[in-house]
Specification:
Blueprint: H1 9-18, E1 22-27, E2 32-35, H2 37-42, H3 56-59, H4 65-77, E3 81-88, E4 94-105, E5 111-120, H5 129-136, E6 141-146, E7 151-154, H6 157-162, H7 166-169, H8 180-194, E8 199-207, E9 213-223, E10 228-235, H9 237-325, H10 331-340, H11 342-373, E11 381-383, H12 385-395, H13 397-400, E12 410-414, E13 421-423, H14 425-447, H15 452-457, E14 461-468, E15 472-479, H16 486-489, H17 509-520, E16 524-528, E17 537-544, H18 550-555
Parallel strand pairs: 12-14
Antiparallel strand pairs: 1-2, 1-5, 3-4, 4-5, 6-7, 6-10, 8-9, 9-10, 11-13, 14-15, 15-17, 16-17
Helix pairs in contact: 9-11, 11-12, 12-14, 14-17
Length: 556
């Protein structure tokens, strides 16, 4: 018995019994002294003798620890306190009740115990017993927090999910169990919640009693009148792990798709190269055969023209001698001289032979260009870049020279002093052919909307410039056409990409150029457009002087 602990006999007991709420008196060690019948009934203690002398924690071992702590604080500081909560009773039942504790003082104003008022709440929306039971047995984690983050109440799911009993976590800080990497975001979310912003679907990692972490998804609201935060969380660890596994699978699938896409691109390139190689092989054989067949009669004509010119000169000399010896020809001979226009024949025949020789020279030049263009090189050889350019221009001469609808395209050849390189003359000629053909196509497209006079005033122009460095040669081909838009220019070297109408372009020309320059010769090819305010396009090519490696040769 505590000193100064006194009873007022039957009057005190009668007053307690008449109170509209359940009342119990405990001493400073929280030992039971006296209680109203309503208290005993509320707490399932109305069967058997009153448990006088039993401690509160013995009577209610499932009572939240922070309740007991608040009872002791009430005794120490002589301040009243109250709370509401869910209480498991000795008889196995549970109630949701609201209690208020006040210090019990004697006649000398000394604290001698605790007066505990309890009210069982049956129908209140706030603490309806059915709702409390649903919360208590819910698989979700229901919690009540103080505004400073201290845990006030938790339901049984905490122990099932995280391994904590209510006494393990009550009065501990909510933030204490949050994963360090999630702490900052969690603090910000709670601050926003307290400032009036709703909190839903906050996800963070919460430490399990065994040290592992579970992913929880939180929703919460604030009851400012009570200074409390009501929160509910759901364990989403399995879902989160599944999402992470799905994300990893998606990354793997994207990587696989990227690999397959690259493999398909490589396959298309290989197919394109094989088709183009076969076409070039066939075309080269055909051109080589045609050039050979033409070359023989041309050489025959060219060789005989030399003798024909000598014979003609001898005959003309002989005629002049006859004219000197026989200055008075007979009438028949005089008539024949007039009819045959002998003086015109003597003057025109040498010019005729000279024209025939020029034609033969032109045919020989074209045949030589065809032979160079159709060369099938199996290994790198000494190559003259200027010869490749000139051969290409010779083959394209019919598109360059003037016609009834347009003046000739001006070709400027700004050739520098180039050393010969180790390369493939035939494929390089094909590169120059494709680039120059595309330039002429672009100029012809513009000419469709221009008259002959307009074209003459601003003629079409292609500038070919060459230069050399310490270990490379450089070729630029520039036209004054309309230029190439960026959206098109970025895809110029893609296989099968073309802006030409169906049947006119295959989309392989520039792709083959890129393959020949970069893979076969280990060089570089770029396109710049526009090159002036009026447009224009420039292709720049650099080729190393040294022969390409075995890997390059193997790809050809």
């Amino acid at each position: 018995m505590v000193n100064n602990f006194t009873f007022s006999g039957d009057q005190l007991n009668w007053a307690i019994q008449q109170a509209p709420v359940a009342i119990a008196l405990f001493d400073c060690q929280l030992r039971y002294r006296i209680a109203s019948d309503r208290w005993l009934e509320y707490h399932g203690l109305n069967v058997g003798p009153p448990p006088v002398g039993s401690r509160y924690t013995d009577l209610f071992p499932q009572a939240p620890q922070h309740w007991v702590d608040r009872y002791r604080k009430c005794l120490d500081h002589t301040l009243a306190t109250s709370d509401s909560g869910y209480l498991s009773l000795p008889n196995g039942h549970a109630i949701w009740m609201h209690w208020q504790a006040s210090p019990w003082v004697d006649l000398n104003s000394q604290v001698c115990g605790l007066i505990l008022h309890a009210e069982r709440v049956e129908e209140s929306i706030e603490v309806n017993l059915s709702w409390a039971r649903a919360v208590q047995f819910s698989p979700d984690l229901y919690s009540i927090f103080h505004l400073d983050g201290r845990i006030k109440h938790v339901n049984a799911a905490w122990q099932k999910t995280l391994g904590y009993s209510p006494t393990d976590v009550c009065n501990r800080s909510f933030y204490e169990l949050v994963h360090p990497e999630d702490l900052s975001a969690c603090e910000i979310a709670i601050e926003q919640l307290i400032s009036g912003q709703p909190l839903s679907h906050l996800e963070n990692r919460y430490r399990h009693h065994d040290g592992s972490y579970h992913w929880l998804q939180w929703s919460a609201m604030v009851e400012f009148d009570r200074g409390e935060i009501y929160a509910v969380a759901r364990d989403i660890t399995k879902r989160h792990d599944a999402n992470e596994a799905l994300a990893r699978s998606e990354i793997q699938l994207r990587d696989q798709a990227k690999t397959l896409k690259q493999a398909l691109r490589d396959l298309n390139n290989t197919q394109m190269q094989l088709v183009q190689t076969e076409k070039l092989s066939t075309l080269g054989q055909m051109l080589a055969g045609v050039a050979h067949e033409i070359n023989n009669p041309v050489n025959f004509i060219y060789g005989n023209l030399l003798h024909a010119r000598e014979y003609t000169q001898d005959l003309i000399k002989l005629i002049h001698l006859y004219q000197q010896e026989y200055d008075q020809p007979s009438p028949e001979l005089q008539e024949a001289i007039v009819t045959s226009e002998l003086d015109f024949l003597i003057e025109d025949l040498p010019q005729l032979l000279t024209s025939m020789r020029l034609g033969a020279d032109r045919i020989k030049e074209i045949v030589s260009s065809l032979r160079n263009f159709s060369r099938i090189d199996t290994k790198a050889t000494t190559t003259n870049i200027h010869n490749c350019l000139n051969s290409t221009l010779t083959i394209l001469q019919n598109r360059i020279k003037d016609s009834p609808t347009r003046p000739a395209t001006i070709i400027e050849q700004n050739y520098g002093d180039l050393p010969q390189i180790q390369g493939y003359a035939g494929p390089l000629s094909q590169v120059f052919m494709n680039i120059l053909s595309n330039a002429l196509d672009a100029l012809e497209d513009v000419d469709c909307d221009r008259s002959y006079a307009d074209i003459a005033a601003k003629p079409n122009r292609i500038v070919i410039a060459t230069s050399s460095g310490s270990d490379s040669v450089y070729i630029t081909i520039t036209d004054n056409g309309p230029g190439i838009p960026e959206a098109v220019r970025s895809r110029l070297f893609e296989p099968f990409f073309t802006t030409k109408p169906s049947g006119k372009g295959t989309g392989l020309g520039l792709s083959i150029c890129y393959q020949i320059i970069t893979e076969k010769h280990r060089g570089c090819i770029t396109c710049e457009s526009p090159v002036t305010d009026d447009g224009g396009t420039r292709f720049s090519i650099s080729l190393p002087l040294a022969p390409p490696g075995d890997s390059a040769s193997s790809k050809s």
